[in-house]
Amino acid sequence: MSTTIATSHNFPPAPPRNKRLSIGIIGSGNWGTAIAKICGENARAHGNHFRSKVRMWVFEEEIEYKGEKRKLTEIFNETHENVKYLPGIPCPSNILAIPDVREVTRKSDVLVFVVPHQFVDRVCEQMKGFVRPNAVAISCIKGVAVNKQGVKLYSEYITERLGIYCGVLSGANVANEVAREDFCETTIGYNPDLGTSVSAEMMVALFDRPYFSVAAVKDVAGVALGGALKNIVSMAVGFADGLEWGGNTKSAIMRRGLLEMQKFATMFFDSDPRTMVEQSCGIADLVTSCLGGRNNRCAEAFVKTGKSLQQLEKELLGGQVLQGAATAADVHELLTSRDLVKEFPLFTTVYRIAYEGMKPEGMIQVLQPPVEESENEFTTETNDD
Ligand SMILES: NC(=O)C1=CN([C@@H]2O[C@H](COP(=O)(O)OP(=O)(O)OC[C@H]3O[C@@H](n4cnc5c(N)ncnc54)[C@H](O)[C@@H]3O)[C@@H](O)[C@H]2O)C=CC1
Ligand SMILES: O=C(CO)COP(=O)(O)O
């Protein structure tokens, strides 16, 4: 079993009252709001550890609400509901929606990053210079940052941009189900050896709820990559849904996908291969996303309707952001630059279907065993009689 370093059973001692931590949520989408709800509940439940007020940065927009145009922050602070991204879910009244990311940054000891990965760069740019000296971050973002130099986790990227320690939270956590308080598990990747002012136990205390069971491990890369890469595999399963392939074929895709996830995490990072198969951030997230996450739904519709993924994102997601196609492109760019495309046939096929017009039926070739494997004694022609 990969080593679990903290769970809700290791409840941390309370810090002195003047050292209680202020929590800031950077993001307020579907998952951002569900995470803010969890932190808001725990800030109240553990008043000796956290300050009650949880600040949530909202990318401000005007929306049509009860017949008039209103600001999303005003509606949230009045109704305690994110009517655009998490409708129907009452949030605790100690969450305050704030349109200025610098104000949230300035006033927070723990910064919880939960924005679609496409926006991390510009958000960090605005936060620079406003971060508290002892602040720490935790990233709930599912994606990878690729450039000419190679690949980075978003937690590493945040550390580099803002100069603060950043852990990761990721798991089988479809936001609407978590917000409804259906039971689920999640994984925190947190490595206290790298020097952080907030312990792994304290991070668990911030997120663990009776319906949201948290385990912390040291394998930050394994946790981050499980969430990022399963988005590619869930698109592959969505293409299979579009073709009306059955459960056996889809589980073959999931198995091959899991192996590529594990291979990627150990090839490019020092990740423990057991994380992908033992923790919620690996196999469990892969399964839940393939059973009907947003990537899966858009990929299915892509095959059934012939519309572009951008169009389907607009039509099906109500302002939420599709991550899998962008991650497939990021990963493909990296694999191409390292001449490793053939080592990751499923990831590559998803890229080709999404961007190069490859027919989704072609996915079946990826599932066939490689030629060397099928050449065994039973297939050799004999002339015995
Ligand atoms: N929704 C889910 O079920 C889960 C999502 N995640 C991950 O959490 C991260 C955040 O996802 P969600 O909260 O679901 O976001 P979302 O998909 O609901 O995206 C909408 C959010 O993006 C913001 N946004 C739009 N344009 C922006 C801009 N130009 N600059 C900054 N922000 C902008 C919107 O204000 C809104 O808060 C993603 O990496 C996702 O993969 C992780 C677990 C579950
Ligand atoms: O990450 C998720 C569940 O854990 C959600 O996945 P989607 O973005 O595909 O909905």
Automatic annotation (TrEMBL):
Substrate binds at K142, R294, N295. The keyword ATP-binding does not apply. The active site is at K230 (proton acceptor). Pfam families: NAD_Gly3P_dh_C (PF07479), NAD_Gly3P_dh_N (PF01210). GO terms for cellular component: cytosol; nucleus. Residues 23-191 form the Glycerol-3-phosphate dehydrogenase NAD-dependent N-terminal domain. Coiled coil: none annotated. It catalyses: sn-glycerol 3-phosphate + NAD(+) = dihydroxyacetone phosphate + NADH + H(+). One of its GO terms (biological process) is glycerol biosynthetic process. GO terms for molecular function: glycerol-3-phosphate dehydrogenase (NAD+) activity; glycerol-3-phosphate dehydrogenase [NAD(P)+] activity; NAD binding; protein homodimerization activity. NAD(+) binds at G27, S28, G29, N30, W31, G32, F59, F119, A175, R294, Q323. Its EC number is 1.1.1.8. Residues 219-364 form the Glycerol-3-phosphate dehydrogenase NAD-dependent C-terminal domain. The keyword Hydrolase does not apply. It is an enzyme of class 1 (oxidoreductase). InterPro entries: 6-PGluconate_DH-like_C_sf (IPR008927), 6PGD_dom2 (IPR013328), G3P_DH_NAD-dep (IPR006168), G3P_DH_NAD-dep_C (IPR006109), G3P_DH_NAD-dep_euk (IPR017751), G3P_DH_NAD-dep_N (IPR011128), NAD(P)-bd_dom_sf (IPR036291). Keywords: NAD, Oxidoreductase. Belongs to the NAD-dependent glycerol-3-phosphate dehydrogenase family. This is Glycerol-3-phosphate dehydrogenase [NAD(+)]. It comes from Schizosaccharomyces japonicus (strain yFS275 / FY16936) (Fission yeast). The lineage of its organism: Eukaryota, Fungi, Dikarya, Ascomycota, Taphrinomycotina. The gene is gpd1.
